[in-house]
Amino acid sequence: MHRSLRTGFLLVAAAVVIGPTPANAGAPASRRPVATYSIVALDTKTGELGAAVQSHWFSVGAVVPWVEPGVGAVATQSFVETAYGPRGLVLMAGGVEPSAALAKLLEQDPHPEVRQVAFVDAAGRVAAHTGQGCIPAAGHRIGDGYSVQANLMLTDEVPAAMARAFEASSGPLAERMLAALQAAQATGGDIRGKQSAAIVVAKATKSSEPWDDRLVDLRVEDSDHPLEELARLLKLHRAYERMNLGDEAMARGALDEALRKYSEAEAMFPDNDEFVFWHAVTLVGTERVAEALPLFGRAFRMNPAWMLVVPRLIEVGQLPSEPGLEDRILATGPRRTYRTD
User: Fold this and answer.
1) Does the structural domain 3-224 have CATH classification 3.60.20.10?
2) CB distance 92 to 78 below 8 Å
């Protein structure tokens, strides 16, 4: 960032943010603008809720997106007051619809003119606010079950481009939100450039096992190409989902389905040695050793350390202790020095 521009930001922040307020209950307010483009959305088919964001700001995923299953999603940005996230979710969880929840928090905020905030709830109701003090180009657009918002953009066309991309896309909510972020960047994006990005998606309803209620939770903390890396991580996340589905199928005894899922994961990331190795282990466990051996060989060539794992799996019963099996498996590898006997 140019020094004079950065100094200007700090002077503006010092003038409009003066410490604890009723909205933040003693938490320090943001002293710099998190210039950002983001989206909050409900998947009207599945009921899933999500938020996604990109900014020229370190670790934006820790600040802007807030999502709770069965409740809603919030994005809080510009001169960020983080409390809009958790407090907005509490209000919506208590039955307050988004426009009233947002209005209540804005009323408590001594400087709503520098905030940019968007809410969506589990019923698809949406509210958004772009204060007059947000640095241009700034604005938001509300659609059916979603809101897109941006500030300090290269052009004022970003929200419209995000809305078009989200409405035109199909598939899972995370991929649709990513499409909106990509459209923002293609339209010019943050005037300062790129640094971090995040996507969060939660289930449609809160369960008794909250550790499983987040379906996607990915963050790129610092990168020259955060959206490209976020797209790669989302694809990798989908591949691991297939591996998990394969494991679940194995537990049900559905071998063909399990192997199909493992193969799908490998096809998405053919250089992922973990996928290949555990696929091979599964085949051995179903007495398909001949099919497993070439996969072991591939995994060992990608990462010879897997050869150290084989005897350990035999030791704990994850691979059968059949005479000669260990030798057959390790013989497919490039370095017999990994033998442990």
Assistant:
1) yes
2) no
